[in-house]
Amino acid sequence: MIILLAAAVTVLGGTAGTTGSPPALSKQDRAFLVQAHQSNLAEIAAGRAAQEKTGGQEVRETGEAVREMGMKLVGDHTKLDADVRRVADQLGVELPDEPSQEQRRQLEEVKAKSGADFDRAWIAAQVAGHRQSLADGRKELQEGSAPEVKKLATDAEPVVQEHLDMLLKVQAGESPGMTESPSPDMTESPEPSPTES
């Protein structure tokens, strides 16, 4: 009888005494979900700005690298944010609709520049933002308690680190070496092979 009861609890996905509501989250888990979401929104907005405003003729190579990085940030952070929103929704965490006031202020400052000044300011802001995102993720891994939230931090780390490495190369005047992100592509379906047609 006890084994049957334990099996029923396992099949129903809970433990005795649960009400079916989302599990209680720590302050750290909630804070990370909000931070990650706002960081993704800020990176998407910054990526779009980079695609619209890049350096002039004198910095053509850097301007092109900034534009390419902008496209990459929009794609990768859109994918990362879809996961953050899904987990937040499952756990009943309400997310803000826009980046933080500081993130918005910083982007407006960068967007007020033009040409090479824009490129340099954009790169510097992105380096700082990606370093902060990595620090936020490490804090979640150390202090968070919800496995699904910690998984977000684990899954985002290689993508954010790749962005930071590429940004540092551009900042140093090197080619960023654009590659496909280590995150799975959830927006495009693979091309069918000739045998599937």
From TrEMBL:
It holds the Pfam family DUF4142. Residues 28-167 form the DUF4142 domain. InterPro entries: DUF4142, Ferritin-like. Gene3D superfamilies: 1.20.1260.10. Residues 169-197 are annotated as: Disordered. Coiled coil: none annotated. PANTHER family: BLR2558 PROTEIN. This is Putative membrane protein.
